[in-house]
């Protein structure tokens, strides 16, 4: 594959193939937000430190600010907009898992992936996964309660 | 947002990748091999590096291998830290790379990228430095296998246009008793103040650290395994010997790092003592 | 009707925030859009010899490059000392020098890289000490010539002091004479950052008629309007400011900073939106940050521990510009005694320029900083007197009848019950088992405590308003000027309204964004004052609407209003509730059975302004800085490793007199968030400068905040002593969780490691160094 300048690629986002024009230098975050109007993934640092831009690529969390859009060709991308009434969304509401909401999409995606891959995750594993993201409003207790409320048994 | 444009190549074979790089050089381009891209993207954003083409190695089968076969653990350079840790054929390596950056980014960082990158810590190199390990490198003359110590001296020693294809670790070393400690300034998710790894075989303990100075270093095997020195003497001698390597930075001052290293060595000796 | 208060109420925008539907400034689609990027200083103090924008201007897609030459604006919320783009010299690392506007972000960023600036470096004032010494390098030569926007700012000629606030209370000589023990200490904490997850962002367009449209992530939409009008001489009515959801603010988005740059930029490309969003690095250093503080305190007390006198000096590192620092200086001075009764006080509080990034308001408004100094002193006094730290604090807590440092009389209503907070904290922390417990493997468990107090320190005319309209089902729409920055203010507002109108909170629909053209005025969403200010306005608006509805009902039911009552969207005759009429039949006026109609749609209007506040007198500091004080007590428990000097956070506890808890889970969340931020300041957050005044940790890679799992177990408890003039008695609590936490942590570590923690943040290396000194 060789892409130069403005290039047409196909990205599979939230179950749909989307044809988009990108430059190779565009990050996945940029393309999701600016080209596909999926603004649920947020830009917080563009340096991979905060996790606000986290999306799932083939069901694993990825910081979309540190992935080129062209790298995502051929993979399945899921954004917060693609969570259709996932239990983690309700769990965040019921457990007061957010205040300003800016980090929420990223946390939701990490928690959702965790629940899919490790439904019986213990504290160290939860910590390992969730330490990838920063929240400045809560003290994390609410997020802990939210994720633990869905971590048992069958998560769909 | 990366403030400059570049071309993207994704070759499907080693030869294609090597040739691609050479062709770009001939055309006065500034190509860069690309693995996980985390360091390249974040540095490009602040114009810490400049390039006009990237060659993504993730499409090359040899760069994606991950298996124990023929007496060796074979890790393709484009394998992610997460996959390597999940496979867990070399527990010391798993443990080390599970403390690089954070869990999400571990799914993007490749072992090749960590070894070849410009960020000085290169924690993934530590377990390789102290085990029987070799690197497969794509060179002008084709695929070459080099002892790790020859191809990596604090950083990867590759000629322009060469790229790391895979890491091969002798199966015998994979299950040796080990020790891993990472200390940071304060927070868990951070660059190391010092990360130390150690392996113990029937003959000797081998130890490597990073964060101490400019590059990962091996601590003197002679002193660590000296028959006549007691633990305290060993530690003093090691710290004295490494004194010129020690550098202060945002994580901690020189003196503090020496204090921390002293503690880490004590722990390491006592841990290995316990297992006999 | 069941009460709507004291019940966990899910925030109105909850669904939006878990689906990605909630839109923040930079999620808004505005078209046509151009992109503005900043070029910022690489020096902390330097003369600008030349700025060459020729190559940048010629880059593809570039529409304009703007420098200080292109405008005459000078900003400053109290002292107009800050050119939005550096003029003649730069005073801090990261200061904006030019703006590039281009068709896309990549082009703008690329062109910004082509700007050439020739600097002549000047000596750098790299600390408060250097700024304060004799014959210092002067950062603002024209200090005394700057326009003041308020009388309450007192710069000192020939110095780097942009404000000096004095407190003189009682008789110092007498105080020292009555003191049997004197303790002294000096403390410092570095500048740090708000680090809201959303970096500041603005969209701005100049319309064909020169009116200005601004969409911004701000806590102060009305002040944006007023300031832009003042700075750029544009009639206020021509400026419309919209604020959608704000991704965290913590005081940092109260400063009018990116908006001015955005307007200046948009003026060069009229008719097109420009997008100006900070990178994280810009948000940390270019935009304003959290203060640094140096404090020296001397306390005199009787052997019993009773404090008789205190002498205090605080110097705020305000950085290169003053912004709201003089007001923070005032706030620290006004509450310099903490919640303690100190009969004789001399306090000098300075706001001092340095060549560091400039500061603005931050959660706690300075209290989180000076409380660290004061509460360390309380523990030092406890050690000196041998009185238990809890007992010492209890002994000295203010009571009704005492005078604050600014000589306001303390009452139960205006100050609440600090004693009760402290007593409850003592039980929560199991103080009886001891404060320092030696455990196995070289570990020590230790506890530290701190009290807290804070008032609002608003301008004396801070005001709010609210408008209610009705839907034909009788439900209410609420519009008020509070921006939704995280603490759930819009939901609290809905609860207050529902309670007053005796309807269910689900029958209140809240306008979540703010548009200054239509949304009724609010001073700012700051100072933990929104519940109070907006709440009072809402109560008045509800009264207004209810009275209109009652009058209509009186006609409809042919019954005098005094015989009517209301509940659940219904007005009924008290002595015969079967005679009733629903709100829905009144909200558009009343239609008689023959079709005749009477009165139009009901609109409830309410407004409120802070009453009885006065400025502080220049010489004595006497005056009334707030309507009420929120008090509380906090504790931190840690596990310290005596060998490695590392520590783990085990527990953090807060008991606050909240007056009335309106939304318990939300209140608890806000307090926990404050504690977590306080732990960040205590453990790891600081700006590190090199010798040239360059900030070295401008990204989250090196600027470290608390992450998931590093947080301790939290305990939050509320005392409820109503503040009589507040909506249902509710006091401000949004900032307070942070205030005593750095102090409590420092006290715990001092005790654990047998050191004297006199600075923040407390890293293992710091503890190790302090231990070496012993």
TrEMBL record, chain A:
Report the GO molecular function annotations. 2 iron, 2 sulfur cluster binding; metal ion binding; oxidoreductase activity
Keywords on this record? 2Fe-2S, Iron, Iron-sulfur, Metal-binding, Oxidoreductase
Q: Which PROSITE patterns match?
A: 2FE2S_FER_1, 2FE2S_FER_2
InterPro entries, per the entry = 2Fe-2S-bd, 2Fe-2S-bd_dom_sf, 2Fe-2S_ferredoxin-like_sf, 2Fe-2S_ferredoxin-type, 2Fe2S_fd_BS, Beta-grasp_dom_sf, Diverse_Oxidoreductases
Supply the SUPFAM superfamilies for this chain.
2Fe-2S ferredoxin-like, CO dehydrogenase ISP C-domain like
Describe which pathway this protein belongs to, using the record's wording: Alkaloid degradation; nicotine degradation
Query: Domain 2Fe-2S ferredoxin-type, which positions?
Result: 7-83
Protein name as catalogued: (2Fe-2S)-binding protein
User: Which organism encodes this protein?
Assistant: Lacrimispora celerecrescens
From TrEMBL, chain B:
UniProt keywords (A-Z) are: FAD, Flavoprotein, Oxidoreductase
Question: Is this entry keyworded Oxidoreductase?
Answer: yes
Q: Which residues form the FAD-binding PCMH-type domain?
A: 1-174
Tell me if Nucleotide-binding is a UniProt keyword of this record.
no
Q: SUPFAM superfamilies, alphabetically?
A: FAD-binding/transporter-associated domain-like
What InterPro entries does the database record attribute to this sequence?
Answer: Diverse_Substr_Oxidored, FAD-bd_PCMH, FAD-bd_PCMH-like_sf, FAD-bd_PCMH_sub1, FAD-bd_PCMH_sub2, Mopterin_DH_FAD-bd
GO molecular function of the protein, one example? FAD binding
Q: What is this protein called?
A: FAD-binding PCMH-type domain-containing protein
Q: Which organism is it from?
A: Lacrimispora celerecrescens
From TrEMBL, chain C:
Signal sequence, start to end:
none
Which Pfam families does the record match to this protein? Ald_Xan_dh_C, MoCoBD_1, MoCoBD_2
Alphabetical list of SUPFAM superfamilies matching this protein: CO dehydrogenase molybdoprotein N-domain-like, Molybdenum cofactor-binding domain
Where the record annotates domain Aldehyde oxidase/xanthine dehydrogenase a/b hammerhead, the positions are: 19-123
Which keywords are on file for this protein?
Molybdenum, Oxidoreductase
Q: Which Gene3D superfamilies has this protein been placed in? A: Aldehyde oxidase/xanthine dehydrogenase, a/b hammerhead, Aldehyde oxidase/xanthine dehydrogenase, molybdopterin binding domain
The molecular function terms in GO held by this entry are: iron ion binding; oxidoreductase activity
Annotated PANTHER family: ALDEHYDE OXIDASE 1-RELATED (PTHR11908:SF132), XANTHINE DEHYDROGENASE (PTHR11908)
Name the chain's protein.
Aldehyde oxidase
Protein's organism: Lacrimispora celerecrescens
Q: What is the lineage of its organism?
A: Bacteria, Bacillati, Bacillota, Clostridia, Lachnospirales
């Amino acid at each position: 594959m060789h892409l130069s300048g403005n290039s047409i690629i196909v990205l599979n986002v939230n179950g749909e193939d989307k044809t988009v024009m990108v430059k190779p230098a565009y990050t996945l975050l940029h393309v999701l937000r600016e080209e596909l109007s999926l603004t649920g993934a947020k830009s917080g640092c563009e340096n991979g430190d905060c996790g606000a831009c986290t999306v799932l690529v083939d069901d694993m969390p990825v910081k979309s600010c540190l992935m080129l859009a062209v790298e995502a060709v051929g993979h399945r991308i899921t954004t917060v907009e693609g969570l259709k009434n996932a239990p983690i969304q309700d769990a965040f509401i019921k457990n007061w898992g957010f205040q300003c909401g800016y980090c929420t999409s990223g946390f939701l995606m990490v928690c959702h992936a965790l629940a899919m891959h490790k439904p019986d995750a213990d504290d160290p594993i939860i910590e390992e996964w969730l330490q990838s993201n920063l929240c400045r409003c809560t003290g994390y207790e609410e997020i802990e309660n939210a994720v633990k409320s869905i971590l048992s048994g069958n998560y769909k | 947002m990366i403030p400059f444009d570049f071309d993207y190549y994704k070759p499907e074979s080693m030869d294609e990748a090597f040739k691609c790089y050479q062709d770009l050089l001939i055309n006065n381009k500034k190509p860069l091999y690309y693995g996980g891209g985390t360091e390249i993207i974040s540095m490009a954003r602040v114009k810490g590096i400049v390039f006009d083409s990237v060659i993504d190695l993730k499409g090359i089968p040899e760069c994606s291998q991950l298996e124990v076969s023929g007496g060796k653990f074979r890790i393709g350079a484009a394998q992610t830290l997460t996959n390597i840790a999940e496979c867990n054929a070399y527990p010391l390596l798993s443990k080390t790379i599970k403390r690089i950056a954070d869990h999400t980014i571990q799914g993007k960082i490749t072992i090749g990228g960590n070894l070849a990158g410009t960020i000085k810590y290169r924690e993934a190199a530590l377990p390789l430095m102290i085990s029987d390990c070799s690197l497969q490198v794509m060179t002008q003359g084709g695929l070459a296998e080099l002892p790790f110590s020859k191809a990596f001296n604090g950083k990867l020693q590759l000629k322009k246009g060469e790229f790391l294809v895979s890491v091969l670790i002798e199966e015998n070393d994979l299950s040796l008793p080990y020790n891993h400690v990472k200390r940071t300034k304060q927070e868990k998710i951070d660059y190391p103040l010092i990360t130390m790894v150690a392996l113990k075989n029937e003959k000797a303990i081998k130890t490597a650290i990073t964060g101490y100075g400019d590059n990962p270093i091996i601590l003197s095997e002679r002193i660590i395994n000296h028959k006549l020195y007691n633990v305290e003497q060993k530690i003093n001698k090691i710290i004295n010997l490494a004194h010129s390597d020690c550098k202060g930075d945002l994580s901690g001052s020189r003196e503090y790092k020496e204090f921390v290293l002293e503690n880490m060595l004590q722990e390491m000796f006592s841990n290995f003592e316990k297992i006999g | 009707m069941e009460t709507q208060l004291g019940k966990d109420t899910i925030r109105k925008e909850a669904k939006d925030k878990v689906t990605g539907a909630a839109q923040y400034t930079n999620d808004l689609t505005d078209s046509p859009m151009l992109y503005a990027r900043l070029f910022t200083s690489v020096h902390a103090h330097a003369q600008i010899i030349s700025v060459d924008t020729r190559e940048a201007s010629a880059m593809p897609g570039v529409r304009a490059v703007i420098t200080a030459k292109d405008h005459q604006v000078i900003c400053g919320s109290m002292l107009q000392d800050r050119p939005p783009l550096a003029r003649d010299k730069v005073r801090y690392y990261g200061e904006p020098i030019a703006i590039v506007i281009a068709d896309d972000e990549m082009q703008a960023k690329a062109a910004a890289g082509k700007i050439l600036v020739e600097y002549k470096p000047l000596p750098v004032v790299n600390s408060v000490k250097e700024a304060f010494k004799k014959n210092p390098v002067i950062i603002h030569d024209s200090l005394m010539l700057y326009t003041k926007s308020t009388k309450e700012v007192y710069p000192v000629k020939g110095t780097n002091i942009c404000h000096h606030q004095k407190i003189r209370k009682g008789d110092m000589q007498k105080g020292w004479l009555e003191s049997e023990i004197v303790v002294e200490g000096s403390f410092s904490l570095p500048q740090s950052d708000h680090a809201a997850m959303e970096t500041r962002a603005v969209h701005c367009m100049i319309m064909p008629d020169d009116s200005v449209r601004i969409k911004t992530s701000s806590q102060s939409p009305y002040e944006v309007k007023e300031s832009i009008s003042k700075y750029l001489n544009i009639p206020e009515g021509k400026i419309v400011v919209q604020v959608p959801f704000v991704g965290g603010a913590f005081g940092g988005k109260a400063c009018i900073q990116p908006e001015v740059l955005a307007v200046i930029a948009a003026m060069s490309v009229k008719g097109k939106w420009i997008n100006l969003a900070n990178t994280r690095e810009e948000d940390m250093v270019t935009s304003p940050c959290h203060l640094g503080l140096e404090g020296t305190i001397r306390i005199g007390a009787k052997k019993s521990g009773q404090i008789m006198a205190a002498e205090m000096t605080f110097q705020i590192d305000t950085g290169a510009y003053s912004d709201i620092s003089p007001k923070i200086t005032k706030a620290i001075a006004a509450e310099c005694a903490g919640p303690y009764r100190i009969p004789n006080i001399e306090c000098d509080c300075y706001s001092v320029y340095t060549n560091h990034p400039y500061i603005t308001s931050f959660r706690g408004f300075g209290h989180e900083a000076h409380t660290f100094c004061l509460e360390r002193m309380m523990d030092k006094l406890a050690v000196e007197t041998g009185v238990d730290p809890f007992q010492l604090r209890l002994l000295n807590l203010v009571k009704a009848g005492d005078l604050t440092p600014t000589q306001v009389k303390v009452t139960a209503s205006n100050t609440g019950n600090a004693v009760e907070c402290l007593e409850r904290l003592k039980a929560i922390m199991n103080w009886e088992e001891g404060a320092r417990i030696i455990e196995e493997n070289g570990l020590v468990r230790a506890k530290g405590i701190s009290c807290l107090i804070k008032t609002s320190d608003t301008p004396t005319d801070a005001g709010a308003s609210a408008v209610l309209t009705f839907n034909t089902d009788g439900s209410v729409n609420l519009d008020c000027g509070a921006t939704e920055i995280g603490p759930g203010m819009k939901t609290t507002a809905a609860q207050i309204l529902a309670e007053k109108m005796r309807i269910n909170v689900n029958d209140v629909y809240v306008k979540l964004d703010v548009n200054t053209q239509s949304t009724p005025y609010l001073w700012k969403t700051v100072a933990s004052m929104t519940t109070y200010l907006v709440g009072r306005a809402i109560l008045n608006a509800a009264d207004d609407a209810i009275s209109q509805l009652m009058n209509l009902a009186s006609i409809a039911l042919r019954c005098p209003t005094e015989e009517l009552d209301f509940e659940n969207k219904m007005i009924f005759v008290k002595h015969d509730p079967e005679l009733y009429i629903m709100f829905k039949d009144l909200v558009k006026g009343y239609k008689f059975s023959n079709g005749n109609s009477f009165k139009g749609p009901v609109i409830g209007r309410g407004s409120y302004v802070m009453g009885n506040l006065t400025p502080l007198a220049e010489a004595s500091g006497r005056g009334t800085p707030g309507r009420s004080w929120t008090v509380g007590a906090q504790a931190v428990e840690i596990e310290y490793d005596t060998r490695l000097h590392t520590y783990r956070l085990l527990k953090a506890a807060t008991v606050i007199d909240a007056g009335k808890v309106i939304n318990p889970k939300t209140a608890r969340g806000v307090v926990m968030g404050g504690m977590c931020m306080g732990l960040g300041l205590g453990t790891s957050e600081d700006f590190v400068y090199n010798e040239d005044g360059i900030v070295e940790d401008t990204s989250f890679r090196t600027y470290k905040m608390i992450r998931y799992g590093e947080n301790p177990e939290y305990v939050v408890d509320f005392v409820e002593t109503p503040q009589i003039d507040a909506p249902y008695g509710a006091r401000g609590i949004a900032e307070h969780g942070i205030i005593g936490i750095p102090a409590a942590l420092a006290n715990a570590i001092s005790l654990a490691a047998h050191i004297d923690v006199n600075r923040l943040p407390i890293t293992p290396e710091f503890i190790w160094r302090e231990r070496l000194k012993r």
